[in-house]
Amino acid sequence: MLPFPVKPMLLETAKSPFDSPDYIFExxxxxxxxxxxxxxxxxxxxxxxxxxxxxxxxxxxxxxxxATECILDGEIxxxxxxxxxxxxxxGRYLAGPRVAKSLMYKKPITYVVxxxxxxxxxxxxxxxxxxxxxxxxQVVEDNQYVTKIDWLEEKGLTLWSAVQENGLEGMVAxxxxxxxxxxxxxxxxxxxxxxxxxxxxxxxxxxxxxxxxGTGSEVQGHxxxxxxxxxxxxxxxxxxxxxxxxxxxxxxxxxxxRVKFTTWSHKGNMRDCHWVGFEV
Length: 280
What we know:
Elements: E1 10-13, E2 23-27, E3 32-39, E4 42-47, E5 69-77, E6 79-80, E7 83-84, H1 86-95, H2 97-106, E8 110-119, E9 122-123, H3 129-139, E10 146-148, E11 151-153, H4 156-165, E12 170-175, E13 184-192, E14 195-205, E15 210-214, E16 221-223, H5 228-241, E17 243-245, E18 248-250, E19 256-261, E20 274-278
Parallel strand pairs: 1-13, 8-10
Antiparallel strand pairs: 2-11, 2-12, 3-4, 3-5, 5-8, 6-7, 8-9, 12-13, 14-15, 14-18, 14-19, 15-16, 17-18, 19-20
């Protein structure tokens, strides 16, 4: 029997894009991490946390693989207007098996594969990344639901320009000689494509540490990462102008700040929102 679930290799963060002959570069897929376990015609799917999500994605029950058994690593995404739709794929993930078969026709997903951890009885995790990539090319054939990820050698800045031009979430840098470890590793790095916005500081949730922000009077983001000095300034503002309502202290319009975030959701909210500073 194949091991199930398997802890996936996780990314560290790099502050800025770079070129290097020691790395390959991939676009960062915005979706749900998924490891596909295939054995003699049977498929099991697991999320990053190990949850069995096989029933949610019937598109992947007959994957285009040339193997008696294998374990693949990748991300399930859903495209809307040719862009990754995180809310859409989460809807698929949470919908449950009863509606999964109908949703596969209305909102089909794509499994973007970037690694192979097991093949025909052999564990591949101690082999270098490029050797695993070469085998992946032989084992997986692209179809309407499964595709191998594109990557560039050395030219991270070239890929970064394309990421920014297309408004994608970011990119990933992977060392060519990296083995696959079941934990977070600096051999795989994520560089996120943040955009910035000037916002109104609308309130604060001390229990969660969220600064509530929006471009108007409605909350559009829950910003994290406020510095010690800015927290001291915020507490002073809250003590003077704040109105406590349950777990939230609200502020009047007029207090301005700057945040960075990855993308706008379809509901107009800022995803992965981080505090930058007050606007004077």
